[in-house]
Structures are given as structure tokens and as C-alpha cells.
Specification:
The complex is a heterotrimer. By secondary structure, chain A is mainly α. Chain A is built from 14 helices and two strands. Chain A has a two-stranded antiparallel sheet with strand order 1-2. By secondary structure, chain B is an all-alpha fold. Chain B is built from twelve helices and no strands. Classes of the chains: A mainly alpha, B mainly alpha, C alpha/beta.
């Protein structure tokens, strides 16, 4: 077995490796939960296991958390969220200053199913823990405030938190005015948009930025659905009946512009009620949320 | 050809004998104690939790003990022989280097096979003794563990032809650790969007993905196994082993024993 | 009728080692060895430490690959596995698996030669008896003394009844009984028509056992031939054993050296001065007990050769 002969054989066999790896990945899926570690250990126990290496361990758990939710599968439909909270808790108990972990966990816990766990109170709880452990972080407190409004519809609570956030050095100057608005009017329709826009601008490239962008598109979709609904009413007033389908609005000149949502899916139109909504197939669909009054 | 094979078998048989005499299989005693204790102490939890924990501990121990054996004995197979010069009288006989190298490999693989089999039987025994049934689906987690161990042995032997036993052990441990974090490597893309994609892909392809051999969670939870996945895993392990062993053979053949 | 090729023929065999970590230099260990071993002879391979003896043996058994040159064992090139069929090798300070008994080790060695199991069993018994280890046949070798391991090593070298035996310092670590055993064994091999090449730095062994001697220094073959050819013929001096006289009491020309040996005195005397010395001894009241001619020994040759060849007088010619 000379080196030359060995190398020839190696080159011949080598392609089998990535090929079989692909075969395996196809069948078991690329992302594998690491459940065996979790049901035995709480954050404290893990901490005790890695004295001196907490930061490194936090990184590993953080990577696992990210892996758990995947990249392209970020907004996919079938995910098991039971592990998200424990993973985030372990990560943040190992490294309480890993802000991004709190935010990540909060987003995916709060988002309604199927793209999130649909448990906004837990998401907010995580943010609150993060804010408590990092009193100098205005961002965590700001997002805590935002989430109160966006997911719980609690304008008053949001205003209170945002006022606190505004006190922290480095906080945006307009938090105070936003808090005042929330208190006064219970928030205007633009409040949500404003908050997501802020989070979009502040986020680094990656999952959170993507999520914020998506939220803005959801708002756009909902706004457009509303506008289409109003166009339906105008059509009815003008023609004495409801349109049979949305394209009629375009044809009749009542509506100028696309009848699809920003993701390209045609809006769902119910002729009997005249209600226009984001179609269920669209990634921008969300279950009807409490619209804040 | 037949005589070459019988020489290889002679080396393999002696290697197995060596591991037995060097008390490697005593790790089974530790395993037995561990399993018995676990079986006794876990009585408080619900039956299903119990069983899952027992299986988890058993499979994890199989994996850990097996890996330790594969690394440290595997490295010693060649390094120790070179350092102590015990291979001089043997290579001076009409035994080719290839037969020696592969014979050692086969011998250790057989040892690991015995080890894993004994542990599997032990695990089943504990499950039976604590009132649970025998489940053959366990074997679909055991088999890939065994395949993973074979790959580790191949690496251990490759490194031991190139460098001292200490350094070879460190390198093998490094490969094993990196291989277990293969998914992290693959997901680097998400976490470090700036890193060059080709580099990450190359790293992912080269480092052996030991998670391919990890079906413990699936089996413990009773998830369905995709039917031909074990075939793919076998192919992966075989191809990888072949590559590593070929490199080891070439390296060993070219060595001067000063 | 085909003539059997020589047991060993080496031509231009050369090997250098790379030394050093960062800046590697080449240290020549063997340079241009031309050697032929005749069938049925015992060839002694002598030289100081580091002169290339072990390197040569390793090259012949395939443990090292030569940089240049070639060697053939019974006509088969040394790189081929087939060349080792008729070879037996005992390395210096052999390490045999200490977790095995000698019987097991020899059985293993037999398997490597493809001996069928019945033959193997018999062979193992015979070999153990030959080297005097029958009673320890089933004792793990980790309990063996150095001498016992050496003997087991010899046994494994003989498993295949080799026609060419290569022994690297076979006497090392042995007590006088063991040395006698090895000596007899080597002679026995020659009686059986086999060829033996053994390296040693114990020159007296080479003198008593070898038909021919090859002398190495600094990796080069300095001379090879029967002792009679290498050593100076003729008498070097006479050894005169006396009693009744003290070494320093004699002041006579021709006495090179005198030393006390118990109650007697041994005098080293130049040949031509014998008569005068005997007369002086008797005149001094002593008696001459014995007179013995002494020829140049291999050791003398060694010291002369190694000492005076421009290497700064270092007998262990570093090079």
C-alpha cells in the first residue's frame, strides 16, 4: 500500500462520504433536538457542572438553541417548542448577560402558533428576567415594554415599562413620548408598526431582524386587508352588491394595486360577510389578535 | 492470499487476547455496577420515565466507555508497539505491514463488538429485572453506536502511525469532540453570516459527523426510525473508515523504525 | 544444477537518519556497505556503539529502508516479504509481549510462518527446551528476568528453523550460564549447516566463535576477513608467570609490564628478551612457572584501529 495507491483509492471513495451524509440528513432531518440533556438538568445544575467555563457552556447552549430553530426553517410550521424555554433558561443562567438569548426566546415564545409557541406571558417573563439581570440595558426593557403592547395588548403596562426604559442612559429619546401616547390613546394603529420598525433597525443581521421585518410585513398585510375591506364596502355602495371576487374591484376601478399580500398570496375574501383577510396559507397569516383599543 | 488472511487473523486474535489480558473488559464491571445502581435507585419515578432514563444511561455509557476504549487502546495499538519496539521481531517475519496494521484494527473492533454486546445484554437484563420488557428497537441505537466506535478506532490508529502516543490521543480526542459538534459547524452559517460558506462546507465534510451515529434520543422516545437510514449510516461509516485506514496504511508502510 | 544464492549479499547499502527538529541534518549511519556472507559460516559484526551494526540488521529485516544500495537474502531482495521466510532475527534488548507466556508467543510466531497447529505445538516444545525455558513455558513474560527474555527472544528467532540467523548483541544481559547457552546454540546452528551473522561489542565472543569478522566504524566497513587475515601474525609478546619475585624488583631490559596476580607475578616480556628475563628471575630467587605466547587480540586491533585513524583518538568513532 504505497502512498500513491492509497491516495488514488481515497479519492475514489471520498465522494461516498458526502453522498451518504446527504442520504442520512434527508431521512433524519438536519436539526436534531438534544433532549437527553435537558430533562435532568436545570440551569443551576448545569452551572455547577461547568465551574469556570460558564461562558463557554452558555455559548454552546446558545448555539444549540439557534440550531434548534434552524435557519431556513425559521418560519416553518412543525417545530417542538417545549425545549425552547429550558434551553433559553439554561443559556441565560450560565451567562446572564447574553441579551440576545432573552430576546430570541421571547420572540419565539410569544409568537402565535405555528411559527412560535403562542405563550406570550412566558416570553414576557423571560424578557423581564433579562431586564432585571441587566438593569443597564435599555434595549431589554424597551422590548419588554413593546411586547406588553404587541402581544398582550396591554397599553398601560407597556407605557409603565417604557417610561422606566426611558430613564436608562442611552435610551432613545422618543420612548417617553411613545409612553405618553400609549397612556393617552391606548396606542394608535401606528404604535405597533413603530415598535417593530425600531426593533428592525436595532437588530443585527440574522434571525431577529428577519422576524421584525416579517412582523412589519404582517402589519402591511393586515393594513392592506383592511383597505380592501373598505374598498369592498365602496363597491357595494356603488354597485348595490358585493363583488364576487377581489379582481372585480380592480376591474371596476374601485381598487388600484395588487390584491395579494406582501408575500404574494391572494387575500381571502368572504363574499357573504364582505370580510377580507390574510389567507391561511400565507406566511404572514396570524390568528386574529386583540386589536388594542 | 489465504495465508495473508490467516496471518491477519493471527494478529487480530492476539490483539483481542491482549485487550483481554490488559483488563480492558473490566470496564464492563463498572458498567454493570452503574446499571444495577440505576435500576435500583430510579424506582420513584414513573415507569415510563424510569425506562427512558435506564435506556439513556445504558446507551450513553456504551457510547462513552466504548469511545474511551477506542481512543486509548486504539492509539496504543501502534504507538505502544513502536515505542516499546515490540513490533521488531514480528515485522522481521514474513508478515507485511498491511497485515499487521489491519490485523490490529480487526482485533480491536472485535473487542469493541464484544464489549457492546455484553453491555446490551446487561441493559436488557436490568430492564427485565425491573419489570420491563425486551425491546428490539434498542438495537437500532446500539448498532450505530458501534459503527461510530469503529470510526474512532480508525482515526486513533491513523494518528498513532504518525506521532507519539500522547499526541495521537490528543488528536483523536479532538476529532471526536469536533465530530460531535458537527451540527454546530453546519449551522455556523446562521450564527456567523460573515464566514465564508465554502470553508464551512469543507470543514463539515472533512470532520466525521458523529451525530450520524446518535439515535439514542429517537429510540428512547420511541420515535419511528426511517427504514433505510441505518443503511446510509453504515455506508457513511464504511466509506469514512476505508479512507482513514488507507491513509493509516500508507503512513505505516512508509515508516522507518529507527 | 542451480547454485544456491548466497545467504546475504549487500551492495552499496547506505542509510542516513534525519536528526533535529527545526533544522534537520542528515546523520549517516551506514555508508556504502558491501558485504557477502558465505553459507554455513558464522560472521561476527563488530564495531563500537553507533558504528552502524544495528542499522545494518534493521535494513536486512525490512525495518528500515535504505537510501541507496540493495541487499539480497538467498537471492531475494530485502524489501520483499519472501526474503524473511528463511530469516530469523533477534533485536537488541528484545521486547516480547509481556502479557504472553513464551509458549503463547512462540505459537503466535509460528502462526505468522503459517505452521500448522500440530507442527507448531511440537516446535514450541522443542524450542523452549533448546533455550532452557521449559519450566517457565506457561509463565507470563512480565515475570521474566532479562536473561530469560533474551532466551525467549532467541527461541522466537528460531521458530522457522531459519537458514540465516541475524542476532543483534545476543549475549547482552546474560549471565555466564546464559552466555554459554547462546554460544553453544550458535555453534549448533553452524553444525546444522545454517549461517549466522551476529553483532557484538564483546570482542572475546567474536574471537572464539566467528569464522570471519567484519569490522565497522563510523558507518563504514573497515575490514572483513578471518581473524588470521585481520590480525597481525606472529607473536606480540610473551607472558611469563613467576613466583617469588615482586613486580618492581626486576629491572631488566625487555620487560614491558609486570603485575601481581595473587601471590604470583605476571610479566609481559618481549620475545627476544626471554632468556635474559628468565635468568634475572632465577637470579633474584624466583621461579618461572609458565611461558605463553600472546598474539594480537581483536581488542588490540580494535584499539589500534579505532584509536589512531585521525578521529581525535576517540575509540567510539562518532560519525
Amino acid at each position: 500500500m504505497t502512498l500513491a495507491r492509497a491516495l488514488v483509492l481515497v479519492v475514489l471513495i471520498a465522494p461516498l462520504v458526502p453522498w451518504s451524509q446527504a442520504g442520512i440528513d434527508q431521512r433524519v432531518g438536519s436539526f436534531r433536538p438534544q433532549e437527553e440533556a435537558l430533562y435532568l438538568w436545570s440551569g443551576e445544575q448545569v452551572r455547577r457542572l461547568f465551574p469556570g467555563f460558564e461562558n463557554l457552556a452558555a455559548d454552546v447552549y446558545w448555539l444549540r438553541t439557534v440550531q434548534y430553530f434552524g435557519g431556513e426553517r425559521l418560519f416553518a410550521r412543525q417545530k417542538r417548542f417545549e425545549l425552547l424555554r429550558p434551553l433559553v433558561e439554561i443559556t441565560t443562567s450560565l451567562d446572564p448577560r447574553l441579551e440576545i438569548a432573552y430576546r430570541y426566546g421571547a420572540v419565539f415564545l410569544s409568537e402565535p402558533s405555528p411559527s412560535g409557541a403562542g405563550r406570550p406571558r412566558e416570553g414576557i417573563a423571560i424578557l423581564r428576567t433579562g431586564a432585571q439581570r441587566n438593569p443597564a440595558s435599555w434595549r431589554l426593557r424597551q422590548e419588554l415594554g413593546f411586547f406588553h403592547f404587541l402581544y398582550l395588548g396591554d397599553a398601560r403596562g407597556a407605557a409603565a415599562v417604557l417610561t422606566q426604559a426611558a430613564e436608562i442612559p442611552g435610551a432613545a429619546f422618543w420612548l417617553r413620548t411613545l409612553a405618553a401616547d400609549l397612556l393617552k390613546q391606548g396606542g394608535d394603529p401606528q404604535a405597533s408598526r413603530r415598535m417593530w420598525r425600531e426593533m428592525y433597525e436595532q437588530a443585527e443581521e440574522g434571525v431577529l431582524k428577519e422576524n421584525a421585518r416579517l412582523q412589519l410585513q404582517i402589519l402591511d398585510a393586515e393594513d392592506r386587508a383592511d383597505a380592501l375591506g373598505k374598498a369592498v364596502v365602496r363597491f357595494e355602495e356603488g354597485h348595490g352588491r358585493r363583488p364576487a371576487r377581489l379582481s372585480e374591484l380592480v376591474v371596476s376601478g374601485t381598487w388600484r394595486g395588487p390584491v395579494v399580500d406582501p408575500a404574494g398570496f391572494v387575500f381571502h375574501y368572504d363574499e357573504t360577510t364582505g370580510h377580507v383577510s390574510v389567507p391561511r396559507e400565507s406566511p404572514l397569516w396570524r390568528p386574529a389578535r386583540r386589536r388594542n383599543e | 492470499m489465504g495465508r495473508g488472511l490467516s496471518r491477519l487473523v493471527a494478529v487480530a486474535a492476539n490483539t483481542f487476547r491482549e485487550t483481554v489480558r490488559e483488563r480492558v473488559l473490566y470496564n464492563l464491571v463498572v458498567f454493570a455496577v452503574l446499571m444495577t445502581l440505576s435500576g435500583l435507585l430510579l424506582g420513584q419515578l414513573s415507569i415510563r420515565q424510569d425506562e427512558k432514563i435506564l435506556i439513556d444511561i445504558g446507551l450513553a455509557a456504551m457510547d462513552v466507555f466504548g469511545t474511551l476504549i477506542a481512543i486509548f487502546i486504539g492509539v496504543g495499538l501502534v504507538s505502544k508497539e513502536i515505542e516499546r519496539r515490540s513490533l521488531y521481531p514480528l515485522l522481521a517475519k514474513p508478515l507485511s505491514r498491511e497485515e499487521f496494521f489491519l490485523g490490529k484494527f480487526v482485533g480491536l473492533v472485535f473487542t469493541l463488538f464484544v464489549n457492546v454486546t455484553a453491555m446490551t445484554l446487561g441493559l436488557y437484563a436490568v430492564l427485565l429485572a425491573t419489570g420491563r420488557g425486551i425491546e428490539f428497537r434498542l438495537l437500532s441505537a446500539v448498532y450505530p453506536i458501534f459503527l461510530g466506535l469503529v470510526v474512532v478506532v480508525a482515526f486513533a490508529m491513523l494518528f498513532s502511525t504518525v506521532t507519539s502516543s500522547v499526541l495521537a490521543s490528543v488528536c483523536t480526542v479532538g476529532v471526536v469532540v469536533a465530530g460531535r459538534f458537527s451540527d454546530v459547524i453546519r449551522n455556523m452559517r446562521e450564527v456567523l453570516p460573515g464566514a465564508p460558506g465554502w470553508l464551512i462546507d469543507a470543514l463539515y465534510a472533512v470532520v466525521p459527523n458523529f451525530q450520524n451515529f446518535d439515535f439514542k434520543d429517537r429510540v428512547a422516545y420511541g420515535d419511528a426510525m426511517p427504514p433505510d437510514v441505518l443503511g446510509w449510516v453504515t455506508l457513511y461509516a464504511t466509506a469514512y473508515c476505508a479512507i482513514v485506514l488507507l491513509l493509516g496504511l500508507a503512513s505505516f508502510r512508509g515508516r522507518d523504525f529507527q | 544444477m542451480e547454485e544456491e544464492p548466497a545467504p546475504l549479499v549487500a551492495r552499496g547499502l547506505t542509510k542516513s537518519y534525519r536528526v533535529g527538529h527545526l533544522r534537520q541534518t542528515l546523520r549517516p549511519a551506514l555508508v556504502d556497505l558491501d558485504l557477502e556472507v558465505r553459507p554455513g559460516e558464522i560472521l561476527g559484526y563488530v564495531g563500537p556503539n553507533g558504528s552502524g551494526k544495528t542499522t545494518t540488521l534493521k535494513l536486512l529485516t525490512g525495518l528500515l529502508r535504505p537510501d541507496r544500495g540493495e541487499a539480497r537474502v538467498f537471492g531475494v531482495p530485502v524489501g520483499d516479504r519472501a526474503s524473511r521466510r528463511r530469516l530469523g532475527y533477534l533485536p537488541e534488548h528484545p521486547y516480547l509481549y509481556d502479557y504472553l507466556t513464551p509458549a503463547e508467543y512462540l505459537d503466535y510466531a509460528g502462526r505468522l510462518f503459517g505452521l500448522p497447529s500440530a507442527d507448531r505445538r511440537r516446535r514450541v516444545e522443542d524450542l523452549l527446551a533448546l533455550v532452557g525455558l521449559e519450566r517457565s513455558a506457561h509463565t507470563p513474560m512480565r515475570r521474566f528476568s532479562k536473561g530469560m527474555v533474551q532466551r525467549a527472544g532467541l527461541a522466537q528467532a528460531l521458530v522457522n528453523s531459519p537458514d540465516l540467523l541475524l542476532l543483534d548483541e545476543p549475549m547482552s544481559g546474560l549471565d555466564p550460564l546464559g552466555r554459554r547457552l547462546v554460544r553453544n546454540l550458535i555453534l549448533e546452528q553452524r553444525r546444522a549447516g545454517r549461517t549466522v551473522l551476529f553483532s557484538t561489542h564483546i570482542l572475546s565472543d567474536a574471537e572464539t566463535l566467528c569464522d570471519r569478522v567484519a569490522v565497522l566504524r563510523g558507518g563504514r566497513l573497515v575490514s572483513v576477513g578471518a581473524l588470521g587475515e585481520i590480525l597481525r601474525p606472529g607473536v606480540a609478546h610473551l607472558e611469563v608467570l613467576t613466583s617469588g619475585i615482586r613486580p618492581d624488583a626486576l629491572s631488566v631490559e625487555g620487560v614491558v609490564r609486570g603485575e601481581a596476580v595473587g601471590e604470583r607475578t605476571r610479566l609481559e616480556v618481549e620475545e627476544r628478551a626471554l632468556g635474559r628475563v628468565v635468568g634475572a628471575v632465577e637470579a633474584g630467587g624466583g621461579r618461572v612457572l609458565a611461558v605463553q605466547p600472546v598474539r594480537q587480540s581483536l581488542e588490540d586491533y580494535f584499539f589500534e584501529e579505532m584509536g589512531g585513524r585521525g578521529d581525535g583518538g576517540n575509540p567510539w568513532g562518532e560519525g
